[in-house]
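Revision sheet: structure tokens.
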Amino acid sequence: TELAKRLTLDPGTCDHTLQALVGLGFVDLENGLYCMRPQYVGYLVSDTDRSLNEVIRYLARRSHRGLDSLRDALVSGTTRVHQAEFSIKQIEWSEACAEIAIYQKALGIHWAHTVLSKLEDFVTCRHLLDLSGGPGLCGIYLAEQRSDLQVTLFELPKTIEFAKGYVEAKGLADRVRLIAGDYNRDVIGSSYDIVWASMCFYFAEPDLEALLARLYHCVKPGGLIVSFHEGIDASSLGEPQFIRRFMPSLWNAQKLFEKREVSQALRSSGFEIEEHRQVETAIGPMMIDICRRPLD
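Predicted:
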């Protein structure tokens, strides 16, 4: 009641919503008082640098596309007809890039730095590829931390135009190279010491192995590819990643990886698995795969 009064909300609706947040695990109820769990404060409070509020709204809109056609799909078994609804080419680019930038500021930069900075290879790394890195904030941050590091951002042409503004604003045009293209078809580059591949394999064609076979030749002999992706446990389909990606994956517009699928594909492509582990993040568990291209 006190919160409803302070925010000028309807008391009944406010209480009902708070109870739902308790059920979802975002809020605790103790002695009649509602309190947001500490691990979520930075991400769900609007005026923090790491707020994910706008990202959550964007993902909700994207995740619900095609819902009206679900019954028809269940009856007919036809799912591919709605793929265009989810295609990145159909999304408003400025909106999509802005939301990805918010995610990168809140979580992406943190995990890129946390994972890579602990690697001995990163200390000696001179050329890093940020594969399909959206607006490029992760690669830009890494370049800021290492004055001797050259970063290449490879992304689709319209996203590269968006990333260019961030690179120029940071004065890093001499050390952050931008390459526009489709990673399934176009030249990505070669002799990278490390390839950082974060949540970007979903649009691999014709399959993940084909993309990784291309990336194998982008990494220098002895170099690393570091994958950071969700991994679904088939025995626990209530996982947040499965629910969030259910509609896009149903319409075959976005792949859904099981926990060991990426690491197995990397091994099949010739990489040696050095580390495979799961970490807990604010958006659920993620799989880290650190793999090395053998020396020729």
